[in-house]
Design a protein that fits this description.
The complex is a heterodimer.
Chain A lengths: L6 E6 L4 E6 L2 H7 L2 H12 L13 E4 L13 E7 L6 E7 L1 H7 L5 E5 L6 E4 L2 E4 L7 H8 L4 E5 L1 H4 L7 E3 L2 E3 L4 H7 L2 E6 L10 H15 L5 H5 L5 H7 L16 H4 L1 H8 E5 L9 E4 L2 E2 L2 H7 L8 H14 L3 H16 L13 H9 L3 H5 L3 H8 L7 E2 L2 E2 L9 H9 L6 H4 L2 H4 L11 H6 L1 H13 L12 H13 L5 H21 L20 H14 L10 H5 L3
Parallel strand pairs in A: 1-6, 7-12
Antiparallel strand pairs in A: 1-2, 3-4, 3-6, 4-5, 7-8, 9-10, 9-12, 10-11, 13-14, 14-15, 16-17
Helix pairs in contact in A: 1-2, 2-22, 2-24, 7-23, 12-14, 13-15, 14-17, 18-25, 22-24, 23-24
Chain B lengths: L7 E6 L15 E2 L2 E2 H10 L4 E6 L11 E4 L6 H12 L4 E6 L7 H8 L5 E5 L2 E2 L3 E5 L3 H9 L5 H7 L3 E4 L15 H10 L5 E6 L2 H6 L3 E5 L1 E2 H9 L8 E5 L3 E3 L5 E2 L4 E6 L5
Parallel strand pairs in B: 1-4, 1-6, 4-5, 7-10, 11-17
Antiparallel strand pairs in B: 2-3, 6-9, 7-8, 11-12, 13-16, 14-15, 14-17
The chains are: A alpha+beta, B alpha/beta.
Amino acid sequence: MHGFHGRYWRFDLTTGRGAHVAIDEAVLRRFLGGSGLGAWLLHREAPRGVDPFAPEAPLVFAFSPLVGTPLTTSAKFAVVAKSPLTGCISDALSSSHFAIAGKRLGVDALVITGACREPSELVCGDLRATPHWGKTSAETEAALASHGRVASIGVAGENLVRYATISNEGRHAGRGGLGAVMGAKKLKAIVVRGDVPTPLADPARVYAIAKDLSKRSFGPATAKYRELGTVANLLTFNRLNALPTRNFQASAFEDAPALSAERLAPVREKAQKSCASCTIGCEHIWDGTRMEYESLFALGPMLGVGDPDAVIALSRRCDELGLDTISAGGTIAFAMELTQRGLLDGPRFGEVPLPLLDDIAHRRGLGALLAEGSKRVAEQRGGADFAPHVKGLELPGYDPRTLQTMALGFAVGTRGADHNRSGAYELDFSERVDRFHGTEDAARLAIGPEDRAALIDSLILCKFLRGVFTDLFAESADMLRAVTGWEVTADELRATAARIVNLKKAFNMREGWTPASDTLPARLFSDAFPRERLERMVRAYNLARGWTEDGRLTEAQLAELP
Amino acid sequence: MYTTAVTHGAIVLCGGLSKRMHRAKAFLPWRGRTMIEHVVGVLRQAVDDVVVVTSAELDLPAIDARVVRDREPRLGPLGGIREGLDASTAGLCYATSTDAPFLTAAFVRKVLSFGGAAAPEADGVVQSLAAAYPRALAPVAARLIAGGRMRPLFLLEEAGYRRIAAAELPDIESLQNLNTSDDYLAALRRDGADMRATVEFLGTARAKAGVATLDVPAGRLEEVLRAVRERMTIDDAHLLSLNGRQFVRDPAVPVGPGERVLVMDAAAGG
């Protein structure tokens, strides 16, 4: 087999024993790696209805056929589990050396099951008590770096904050609370080091493709990421009335210019970094903290905070504690509105909730409530109409009212409100749709970016590279042929992408998804964006996917899946 | 014996595709407002009830008129007139397209003064979108549509309309329409408009341009970009937005006075 190893390593933390489990090549061809393989493994390993915090709940680290090749941006891995925040599948991607080292174990994935009796670390297959419980991921990583590459949780994961992250080299498998799944297993860190190479079917062709792709990755399609980073989105979104502000009370923020990359990058940016195997270099370090748009929006405009020092500090603290910045910002913003409405004695818009982040990570005081996420806070304190989540996952920084194709993407996404797995905003930022007036045609078009995202997340490559491809499916087929030797075509990959989306949907169906959850918070609907319009879009999307009108897979589609 | 005075209303047809204008005519800037606001404002001086008929997809800003949508798409002006007559509370309606920049209240009153179906004739052409239609013609319009007879002229003929000679009408420039971006730009210049627009640079474009904003002459997009290209290269890495509302790339799109073209990174989003 080329590009893959045809097996995963399942380690049971309860027994302290691991074993290799074979993966049929046909499975790898149908679901590839990363998100697709991770979803397949989750189906296989997760008992139906499993509590995400139960020992039986698996935590999957899935590598991919392109990891370890010279293809730019290929050093990525997927972390997949049932989310404690949403109860749905959560497939988070992270980057860098952990992916390469993990695959050099000679496996296509790691599946962690069971739970440790005491806080532990799994170091190159050796499970032992950890002295690092209570430390940040960066501290843990530094302490364990001599053993290999480290993925670890912060205090938030230890305390089962439902939106805790898993971190490695300052990157995060951020969304959905996978850090809490790891924390429930009392597993502080996983360290991997291997020396098993992955054979390539046609190394010369792989190198030729890699050289061409690298060259193209320096072009105009990636300029934004290279020159400013995703923080460039803030002022643009503000200008387009698409910047969620004060818990979606508004779509533009009066202090956006003060937080903008245009103003801050020239004075704040001190360094720029990139993941392993990446030629783009999208990491822009402001005053020692890697700043991304989502963190900037969630901890700035969402909270009504316009001081850049404060936002940078909040973002840094989230990283240190191991908190998803989007969910942290969304949940705190919700708490701010509850306070505004007299339903909570909590922080107020405009205040800088730095101590509250620690309270959340340690589950103390108000933090114990907010650690549950906005959906559960609303269940306890009211305000469901303006709780900023879909299926429990807090909305990222794209206002659905003025990006109505993205609205559809949020509503139907298998992870919850998620711009990354959907990509529907690409249509809103084009002449192909009217972003202020979502239509059924736009909903059908949204399948394209979603399928492309599923493919990219399973190959795995970085989505920042997407503008470089003329025909993603054809070029991906070329890459896969060279890596695996499979006679794979663009059409096959189109079907594969759709199958991976179906697989994730099937997991959610199995775990209790209902059509009613494919919607948005009530506050986002108005005369300008009637609920009925979104409902028509959702129906059109479902039918275009070949699902039933209310979003269920057909018997024929389910038969194709595990 | 009492006679009831016929009430006067107006219908504005706003649902067309505006293909040759390359953007919705309703939003073209005119004398400090949008074209639809301007036309509705003129009509309000002549009539009490104004109905604007728009398509299912076109959302209008708040205007001083009742807005109704085409119940069926692509029925053309006759479909819009039918919708407007059905929605109107007036007995006699002046029907116009959106692109009537030089329309005057005096012209509208004169067309309505004949008391029934009436249409100007100019250069041998019946101006069916500057004409008066009794509300009672709504079912006739429906019958014509069902029969595939889609021209407003057929409706006027069924009504036995009064031909109005150009000489009978005040402010004959009220008949001028704007079909293309060049028509619009020429009309602006004729009207003495302040032909200035602004380009706003966002993201990486701001550093490349060296400025946050740039004053440019209003005109076709390609003319606006000519000024921008003196400062930076505009290519596929950039996205252009008109007023933050509509993304544009067509070089023929007209950029009107006071409008802003935003230049941003094409990799918008994550």
